[in-house]
Amino acid sequence: MAETKPAATAAAATKSISSVQPKKKSNAISWIAPLACLIIGYVIWRFVIGADSNFTHPDPKGGFWPEHEGPKGGLTKMYLGGIIVPILIGCFLTVLTFVIERLLTVTKASGNGNIAEFIRKVQYHLANKDVDKALAECDKQKGSVGNVMKAGLRKYKEMIQNTELDTEQKVLNIQKEVEEATALELPMLEKNLVFLSTIASVATLLGLLGTVLGMIRSFSALGDSGGGEAAQKLSQGISEALYNTALGIGTSAVAIIMYNVFTTKIDGITYGIDESGFTLTQSFAANYK
Question: Which residues fall within 8 angstroms of residue 176, CB to CB, at 6 or more apart?
């Protein structure tokens, strides 16, 4: 009989099942959006900017890359920047897509109200040993911090009623529950940010590549002609090539700015989640020794 008691205690310490359930969400946007944006970028370049009516000497044969000449407007000159232009347009549309997607996700994860104020309210209710009111605050918050806190509070409430474990084991169970809830929330916050960071680097290089290709074509045309006409073609070719640089730098700038905005917001949410876990464990250790 003396040997069955430790076994029962060990079983009691491990029988608690986590209430945190994985969130099953498809991430199809991560591969559909870039592909769709590249296709739309080509359509804009080929059929909107590169429409026959936008040139004095259009290429009637059409095809994948018509050799139009004589653009009628400043924006139309972008077409002559070459095949890198639609890729850059696609990159810019991809940035806009993921900026909107991350904005919706991070806004939802931030929840309602100020995170610091929410944690203070929970601390107040826990100090008064009113777990139900603390849970009600989590329902009002409706963000990632509230979700993690709610999972921890459910375990907190369960541990109050548990008579088989000591205080240290109960605190460890609460801490484990918070860690499991955090592991489910953080990937959702950081998902798809890699596209913004990647495009921030690649867009500038693509712009430079388009510029170099345009310069090669310009100097090649210069070698085939002479006189004032050659200088005119060279200056025109350089102007067209620089559209690639402008598009690349502009796209990269937007991606960098929005990436930093989102990472700052996510850092704030992460700090709130960490503080939530600390609040729960310290409160339980102090109130239920």
Answer: 18
Return phi, psi of residue 71, to 5°: -65, 140
Burial class (CB in 10 A: 0-12, 13-18, 19+), 2: exposed
Q: What is the pLDDT of residues 100-131, one digit of tens each?
A: 999 999 999 999 999 999 999 999 999 999 99
Q: Give the start-to-end residue ranges of the domains of the chain.
A: 29-58+75-287
92 neighbors 251 (Cβ within 8 angstroms) = yes
What phi and psi, each to the nearest 5 degrees, are found at residue 6?
A: -60, -35
Question: What is the rounded CA–CA span in Å between residue 79 and residue 86?
Answer: 9
Cα separation, 58 vs 80, in Å, equals 12
Taking the CA atoms of 197, 82, 55 and 221 in sequence, report the sign of the dihedral they define: positive
Tens digit of each residue's pLDDT (9 = 90 or more) over 157-188: 999 998 899 999 999 999 999 999 999 999 88
The candidate with the shortest Cα–Cα distance to 244, out of 92, 95, 69, is 92
3-class DSSP assignment, residue 94: helix
Neighbouring residues of 182: CB distance < 8 A, sequence distance ≥ 6: 148, 273, 277
| Under 8 Å between Cβ of 177 and 18 | yes
- Strand-pairing partners, residue 57, are 69
143, 109 in Cβ contact below 8 A?
yes
Report whether 200 contacts 259 (CB < 8 A). yes
d(C-alpha 138, C-alpha 78), whole Å:
52
Please tell me the pTM assigned to this model: 0.85
* Cβ contact 79:71 at 8 Å: yes
Cα gap 250→246, rounded to integer Å: 6
